[in-house]
Design a protein that fits this description.
alpha+beta; Aspartate Aminotransferase, domain 1; 2 domains
Amino acid sequence: MALGPKAMGEAIIANLKRKSGRDLGEWQQVLSSEGIDDRASAEARLLEHGLGKFQAMTVAEVTFGANHYAAPDSLVDELFRRFPDQKPLFDRAVALGEQAALHLQPCRGYAPLYRDGRIAVSFKPTARGLYAALILGDASSWPDRQPHKPSLGGSTRLTDGVYLSTADEIDRLMKDLSA
């Protein structure tokens, strides 16, 4: 089965070390040490270093925070249109995520927070509550957790899904994610 753009980007990042000898962080250090500070220059320099076109594009996008969609705020607004009561929970998660060096890169069907080029947690409003997909360090501490459903958004690498309905649950989830 062909990978979508997000899955392809994640696969490129996951395979960087094996295919190029350096992982994402090492390529980012190369760019930083060479004084590269924009996406176009980074892409060109990575090509000179021998990365393939898609590898260079992906590393440059991840490094300089390029969104795959032009209007991320409108994507989030549309995502929460049917469940506006869940938006404050999501906003709280994003604020806590920013404190933990996570950055939001919303999509059409879900809103993931990224760390080091990979989805750390993905959110989607549902009738059951705000669905969060992630890898829980101690899954047993979340008795209502279930195996992640990729149809609810996020990487297939994510293993756990929980439905959240309170600020305390958001706080707990983001604390677990940071641990």
